[in-house]
Automatic annotation (TrEMBL):
GO terms for molecular function: 8-oxo-7,8-dihydrodeoxyguanosine triphosphate pyrophosphatase activity; 8-oxo-7,8-dihydroguanosine triphosphate pyrophosphatase activity; 8-oxo-dGDP phosphatase activity; 8-oxo-GDP phosphatase activity; metal ion binding. It comes from Streptomyces chromofuscus. Its cofactor is Mg(2+). Its EC number is 3.6.1.55. This is 8-oxo-dGTP diphosphatase. SUPFAM superfamilies: Nudix. Residues 3-133 form the Nudix hydrolase domain. It catalyses: 8-oxo-dGTP + H2O = 8-oxo-dGMP + diphosphate + H(+). Keywords: DNA damage, DNA repair, DNA replication, Hydrolase, Magnesium, Metal-binding, Mutator protein. Gene3D superfamilies: Nucleoside Triphosphate Pyrophosphohydrolase (3.90.79.10). Belongs to the Nudix hydrolase family.
Length: 137
């Protein structure tokens, strides 16, 4: 059996809003929205990967808060795990630095106004419950 490779996604929350990122690449994903993140490197914890990916993709300093229940299959051997995250004090504003061409902060009321990638929908549903309840962490 092939070893699973974990891809971390960040449900980056700030003031009751969730950050969504629109893919610019690869072509089959371009124009759809996702939770930013990326692969966990060998020897790296998922939480450390999340912090690194947010720095690389968005230019922000963030911290992982808690794991969102569940995991979602991507193309084998990849599996998506999502953590809620928050910006650290003094972090720069998020910018689309790689693989994204637009960022949007969504509220509970606008969460479904974008076309999410299928693999992110389950995680976004979980996070939506926290947003609807007004829970940040």
């Amino acid at each position: 059996m092939t070893e699973r490779i974990v891809v971390v996604g960040a449900a980056l929350l700030d003031g009751g809003r969730l950050l969504a990122a629109r893919r610019s690449a690869p072509p089959e994903l371009a124009g759809r929205w996702e939770l930013p993140g990326g692969k966990v490197e060998p020897g790296e914890t998922p939480e450390a990967a999340l912090v690194r990916e947010l720095r690389e993709e968005l230019g922000v300093e963030a911290e992982a808060v808690r794991r969102v229940p569940g995991e979602w299959m991507l193309t084998p051997p990849y599996v998506l795990q999502v953590w809620t995250a928050r910006l650290r004090a003094g972090s720069p504003e998020a910018k689309a630095l790689q693989d994204h061409d637009e960022l949007r902060w969504l509220t509970a009321g606008t969460l479904w106004s974008v076309e999410w990638l299928e693999q992110d929908v389950g995680a976004v549903r979980e996070v939506a419950q926290a947003l609807n309840a007004g829970v940040e962490h």
